[in-house]
Every structure is written in structure tokens, then in C-alpha cells.
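Question (not urgent): is this output format expected?
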Amino acid sequence: MDGIKSKIEAGEYSSALDELISLVHDENYDNLPQILEGISELQKKDLSLNKEQLEKIRPYIDDFDEDIQNLAMDICMTNITTDLATFEQNLEFIISKVNSLEVEARQNVIDFLIKMYHILTEKEKTLISGLIENLDDELWNVRIKIIHFLDEILSSKPNFIKSFEDQLEILYDEKDIDVKKEGLDFLLRLFIDTYSIKDLKELIDTIPKSEWIVQEKIIYLVGKLGINRRDLIKPLAKDLIYLLDHKDYLVTKAVNDAIQENLDYHVDVFDEAFIEIIENKEIDHIESIEELLKESVVVSGFERFYQIFQLVSYDSPSLMSTLSTIIKKLNSTNSNLLDSLIYQLTEKILTELSQENYSKLKSVLEKNSYYYLYLNCYQALNEIDIIDNKLAENRRKKLLNFLLEKMPDLSFLNLKKWIEVNLVDGPISIDNIVSKFQVERSNLIEFLEGLIEKGELNAVISNGKIALKAKSPLEEEDLLFLKKWSIDQDIEDPGKLDIKLYIQIRNISGQNVNNLKIDIDYPTELFDISLHNEDNLPEILEPNQHLILTYHFERKRERISNPKTSTIIVIFNYKKAGNAFTIKKNLDVLFI
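Got this back:
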């Protein structure tokens, strides 16, 4: 080795290299790392190994010693980079050795291949194919590095990368969470950029034949692809929906989620397929479609509900059954939403109440006799002016009569509120109520007596009139009221006054007072009133318990020309021992 060192010092690099190469054999195994390091250093002097010299190094790429492995592979890789033709000749050999290398050497070769890709003129496919084969490498960071490299090429050569699609199926077997995410993101970009309807059809068709670990990833990709490529998912909507009948719950759940996510972005993309499948009973699990349609209404609201209503034909029993089921589901899970939907639907179709829409709405009402559904439909039918079209107006009246036949109490809905407001001013003639609301006298009296008996109306019926129930002279009020005014300069605007009215209410009845509601009547042309703590009204006011209400006054006009008197009326409605009571307090106010 001393002679070799002298030659190197004398600049005789080629001779030194020849001598070092001659020492590469198993008899010098213990000195082999030192020998290989010497060869590697000489390569930095722009020396290349010829074919025969390289053949002596190659066997040590498979050596069990990791250091020898690394050095041998580095020498081979450095040598072939000096000449592109040599590199391309040796490319398949290098790729064939990757799996047998130890960790560090393997990582170095992967980095080397990625670096060399950009100078290749031929054998691009060989290099890419070789890298893809290493997507099962035991090191997660190696797998991610390869995915990132493929993703980089994808941006400029999507169809080139697509030619490796069969090989890339290795990514479906990935179990590491981070690598799986990177792999799926890469595949999704590939599919978005390159897929045709035929490609997607073939991908969906592989789902039933695959294992769950693969099915899960394919279904995820199909769902995400549909969001980005509506043009692909719509023609194949049926193929995806059919999988809702798959025997494996995990598959049907994943497919359901994928369809649901697509509906969040493209609410009507599956509609044609849904309608055909329901009408022709093409799958067993029609209820899965009905649930998906219901959820799309919850997400998208009335426009979606109206869309489904219009898609359904009255002549199709299957579709009418689905519409009814959607309404039942909404009533079970989103009843407030359903109330609003029925009101809006009735209001919308009333503009042109066609025979088709009339028949569908009546069928829905017949199959779903929910009180608030009927109530909202009834109110919408009543609030519209008479429809110009005589046939449409007759249909409206038929719907009203149908609702009243099913629920006669609907005709009294607004009546109770009107009576409560007007009883404060004195007794009301029963005949006047009959005339105003066009109700049967006997039905009206039966309705009022029912309210009084249930404690919902604190009144009596006598001599053809209804009046507030009078209190005994010995009977005291249940609530004690104290008031206090506060007038200060507004902190935020010193030019304005901050006017507040404090009302203290104390329960002095000895029993619980509940359902306390407070209304205030005031001259709205002069000022506005807001209640600061309205949300804090207790459901029950226990004996001797009190609460304080704070009303804030804001005047509407800067000045009034003359002093003006007015009255503020505060009305307290509450229940005690099941009976309803009303207390009215007048506050005289002088405005200056």
C-alpha cells in the first residue's frame, strides 16, 4: 500500500488505480474497505474504471458487510455517471440490486436514480418502473421519497405516469397512515388529470373483486374524483349506487359516504340514476337512497327539497313512496326543518297549482298526518290571495277542506290568539267571533270551553259573550310590582340620554308561577324599547322569589315641540295551579 501511496503523491493516478484494482479479491478481504476507499478517492481525480475493472467491483455489491456494499455501489454509480451510455447500459443491473442492499446503500441508490432521471435520453420507463418496484421498501421515508418524485413528473408528463397505472396498484396495499395519504393524494391527481369514463368504469368494477384494504382506498379515490370530475361520475352513477347492495357493510358504508360527499358538492349529480333505480327497483336497499336524498335536503335546504318534489311523478307509486319516506325521516330527525319546507313548498306551488302538484301534495299529506305539517300547509293555503286560475283555486279549496276534515281544530288556530288580545279590552260577543272567523257557533263554543277547562284561557262564557274571569274582591294579586326610572348621560354618546326602567316582580302568591310572558305596548312613533335580560326569564318563579327586568328606552325624535303625555302598558301572562292569568299595568309617561 506504501507504493500505491507514493504513486498517488507523484500524480501517477492511473497506475495507482490499476494496482488497487489488482488487490480487489477475497484474499485481501480484511483490507477491502481501505482498498475500495482508495479507488473511490481516485475516481475524484476524473478517472474511470474500464469494463473489466468494474466487473471486479460488482460482486461486492452483494457483500454481507454494509460498508463494503456501500463502497462497491458508490464506485459503480460514480463510474457510470461519467458516461451516459454506460449509465443506461448498467441501469437494469443497478435496479436489480436495490432490494438486496442494506439500508444506507439502498437509500443512496434511490437518491442516485432520482438524480439521474433528469439527464436520461432513453430508458426513462426502465428507471420509473424500477423506482415503483421499490414502493414496498421497508423504510417509509424511501416510499414517500419515490411518491414525491413521481408526483413531480406527473405535473409535466401525466400520461407518461398513467402508463404505469398497473404497477402503481402497489399503493393500494400501503398501511402506513402518512405514506397512504401521500400515495392516495398522488393517485387522485393522476386520475383527475388523465382519467376517462372507461378508466373510471374499470376502476369501479375492481371494487367487488378486491380485498377491503384495497376497496377502501379505491372507493375513497372514486368519491374524491367525482367531486373534481363531475363529467366522469355522472355517467357511472348507477355503477356506484349498485354497490350499496354489496354484502360487506364496510363497502356499503364507504360507498354511501362517497356518494354523500359528492351530493354536498353536486347536489343533483346522482338524481337521474336515483330515479331510474327506484322506479325499476334495481337494488334491494332503496332505503339507502332515501336516506341519501333526505340528507341532501338537510344540507341544501328548500331548493333541494323542491327539486326532489319536482322529480317525483305522481303516476309512479315507487317514487311517491320514496317522497313520503323522505318526509317521515325528516319528521323524525329534523321536524323544524320539515315544517319550514312544507310551508315553502305549499307557498311555491300555489302560484300555479297544477293537477300534478296538487295530487302529489295531497298524497304527501295523506301519508304523513303530522300536526305541524298540516298546520304549515294550512297557513300557507290561507295566506295567499285567491288564485286567478279557477281550476287552481278549486284545488286550493279542496286541499283546505281535506286538511279541515282531518284536523278540524286548524280553523281555530288564529282565533285563540285574537281572543286573548281582545279580551283585555272587555267582553266579546260570541256572534261577532262567529261572523269574523266563519265558524260554526256550536264548534266555537265547544272549542272555547275546552280552552277554559284546560286552563289555557282565563275566561268565562255567559249571556252570549266571553269575558275575562273576574277576581274575588278578597283575592289579592299573585305578583307584586315595583318600578324605578334611571336617567343618565350616555357614556358612549354624551349628547344622548341613557333612560332605563327597572321593574321588580315578586311572587307573593304562595304557589309556583310558571310560563311567565311579558308584553309591552308603547308609543312606537316616539321611542323604541328593548329588554336587556329577556333570555333570563325563569320558567318557574317560586314563592317569594323575585326578578328584575331592565328596559332601555331610545327616543326616535330629537325634539318634540310641546310636552306630550302617553301610556305604557305592561301585560304579564302566567300560569298558576294549571290556570292562566293576566295582569295589566299602566305607566303614565310625560315626554318633554
